[in-house]
Amino acid sequence: MNIGNLEIGDYLAIGAIFSATDSVCTLQVLNQDETPLLYSLVFGEGVVNDATSIVLFNAVQDFDLSNINSAVVLQLFGNFFYLFILSTLLGVVAGLLSAYVIKKLYFGRHSTDREVAIMILMAYLSYMLSELFALSAILTVFFCGIVMSHYTWHNVTESSRVTTKHAFATLSFISEIFIFLYVGMDALDIEKWRFVSDRCVFSSLMLFFGVWSWG
């Protein structure tokens, strides 16, 4: 089967993408209100796996792996941990900063509007800073959200909590709809199916044996 002229870096990049686990089906079965802990564990595991795959993919892309030696391998692992740790720290700092700002500032009768705005803007700021410094934006936003849920959440009013919960739930629902529509329309491109027809069978078999081997 002809899969093209791929180098070792291409194989590692493909392996990094395929190593991400899909927890979407599991989350659809679980009920967040009935099993909040289990839902959080499955969701967090899926997000961290996806973010780790992206970080590993970016780390592989930054190196010329045509000639691999011990120094290149150490640099690859060092770059991976550099991206992972800094992305996590940036998210934690942004979350703590949002908690501190909301706790110290007094918003008066406009507290709900401004508290919700600060939480959204701080999360978006962490994403933009992560992209600016070429880090993992997904990992940064994820840990920023974790810190906000533990600290910022307890510093806002009850009305702000309700508003934030429904606002992010609405944005999440709209984003999911857009993704499914985009993927569905992109699947109608015949040229892409012609290009990956033989590779789909090969990739599916390798993915099946990879998952089956891990039990």
TrEMBL record:
<feature type="transmembrane region" description="Helical">
    <location>
        <begin position="123"/>
        <end position="148"/>
    </location>
</feature>
<dbReference type="InterPro" id="IPR006153">
    <property type="entry name" value="Cation/H_exchanger_TM"/>
</dbReference>
<keyword id="KW-0630">Potassium</keyword>
<dbReference type="GO" id="GO:0098719">
    <property type="term" value="P:sodium ion import across plasma membrane"/>
</dbReference>
<keyword id="KW-0812">Transmembrane</keyword>
<dbReference type="InterPro" id="IPR018422">
    <property type="entry name" value="Cation/H_exchanger_CPA1"/>
</dbReference>
<dbReference type="GO" id="GO:0051453">
    <property type="term" value="P:regulation of intracellular pH"/>
</dbReference>
<dbReference type="Pfam" id="PF00999">
    <property type="entry name" value="Na_H_Exchanger"/>
</dbReference>
<feature type="domain" description="Cation/H+ exchanger transmembrane">
    <location>
        <begin position="4"/>
        <end position="188"/>
    </location>
</feature>
<feature type="transmembrane region" description="Helical">
    <location>
        <begin position="168"/>
        <end position="184"/>
    </location>
</feature>
<protein>
    <recommendedName>
        <fullName>Cation/H+ exchanger transmembrane domain-containing protein</fullName>
    </recommendedName>
</protein>
<keyword id="KW-0739">Sodium transport</keyword>
<dbReference type="GO" id="GO:0015386">
    <property type="term" value="F:potassium:proton antiporter activity"/>
</dbReference>
<keyword id="KW-1133">Transmembrane helix</keyword>
<feature type="transmembrane region" description="Helical">
    <location>
        <begin position="80"/>
        <end position="102"/>
    </location>
</feature>
<keyword id="KW-0915">Sodium</keyword>
<keyword id="KW-0406">Ion transport</keyword>
<keyword id="KW-0472">Membrane</keyword>
<dbReference type="GO" id="GO:0015385">
    <property type="term" value="F:sodium:proton antiporter activity"/>
</dbReference>
<dbReference type="GO" id="GO:0005886">
    <property type="term" value="C:plasma membrane"/>
</dbReference>
<keyword id="KW-0813">Transport</keyword>
<keyword id="KW-0633">Potassium transport</keyword>
<feature type="transmembrane region" description="Helical">
    <location>
        <begin position="196"/>
        <end position="214"/>
    </location>
</feature>
